[in-house]
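Q: My labmate handed me this sequence with no annotations at all. I'd like to see what the chain might look like in three dimensions before we decide whether it's worth expressing. Could you predict it?
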Amino acid sequence: MNDYSNYKENLENINEGIYFVDNERKITFWNKGAERISGFSAKEVLGKYCMDNILNHIDDKGNKLCSNGCPLHKTIIEGSRKSRLIYLHHKEGHRVSVNVSTTPLYLEGKIIGATEVFTDNINNEISIKEIDKLKAVAMFDNLTSLKNKKYLETAMKTKISEYKHFNTSFGVVLLNIDNFRVLNENVEQCISDQVLQMVSNSIKASTRGNDLVGRWSGDEFIVILPSINNINTLKDLAERMRIIVKNSSLRNKENNMGVTCSIGATLIKEKDTIEDITKRVVTLMTQSKLNGKNKVTIG
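A: Here is what I predict for the chain of 299 residues:
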């Protein structure tokens, strides 16, 4: 086996996603890590261009980087390394938060392409052992792999107690899928389930490592945001969730199926009970619906 074969085999078997492109950004190498993180096999992407309908990178503002701001393109043009946090479009439809690093490839002093290394941020993922524990005490949602309403209520009560004793503020965000009832009536049950899974995974991708994401009801999700006492920070985080969900879509042969969410978000207030908080975020979310949907309302 020659040196190149050894090199390629080593790249194939590392955990990070790695792919190579030429100067036209045509994909020439795609390792198993890239398959695991993106859901796309090497067979599906080799010979295609990174700006084709594959990863569709966006930033946390929803800007489409493949057409403007692509780290690989900048690396090829400028000959310098680039790194940033982005959100790729998984084959199953949801967004995945990844740290990307791009490096130029040289041959005889000339740039012949670039390589991208991407690592998924899995701080929000529930481990298999934790899932088993949650199942045992009925605090786990089987469809979405999120904590369920019972768990969220317990967590909120704990956060309220911490606020009263230690003045540690927190935020709560309620997301409701727009027009889900209509969608549910017009597609097969399996498609509705896939939409719920897509949205739940995209919400997880858009949150911080210590945030708690759970399914509140059929088409509603709640995110508990620890250590937040600033309304602008709350708004920025809620907007990021809205943008990432909006830019997610189930892929099929005819067209992509996407959804949006109406969002209500609030900070803990003095003398708040769990009923006060949940009533307030429902009212705020409803206001987002009345304002045209796919909106964030803070209060």
